[in-house]
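Let's study today's protein:

:::
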Amino acid sequence: MRRSLVATAAVAALALAGCTNGGNSGTPSTPTSGADNAAAVAYMDKVCGAASEFAKIEKTAPKLDAGDSAKLKAEMAAYMGQLADAFGKSAEGLKNVGPSPVQGGEEAVTRMAEAFTSLGTVFAEAKTKVEQADANNATGGLQAAGEAIAKLSELADPLRDLKDVPELQKATQTAPKCQEMQRLNVTPTS
């Protein structure tokens, strides 16, 4: 059982590390100008602010305690709940950013919100499975937690849906909240 728990925790750490590698959205940095570009930058500032909320919520990964599987189970359930809440908060924020000044922007942000909502649901379900599992059965709820954590790869690039909206993708290079996402190590490198 200890090896399975170690593997689950290792997957959690690696998945989160993969989810939070710093960098940019892969577009070259070019200054924006004009009213349309200023509106796009302001919009992306709201989008990045909402999307990065999951990174700001305190999430405490379970510590391996070789002798106390019940404690690990409780900590893993709490961790799953923290992740579910964090993704839910980002999804709600994305749903409330308002209309896009650029055609296709709202659709891209809706897809982002759906991805965050989906991940929130995955972690909420994993939390329930962990809570219901026998702490001594590593293939029960703790496996569900590992599977949920593996889903974090879906969020490797939270701004990937902007690839079809070049003006908004370009705006991420100067929007302050998008720059903050990079400092929080939320967006991947190109």
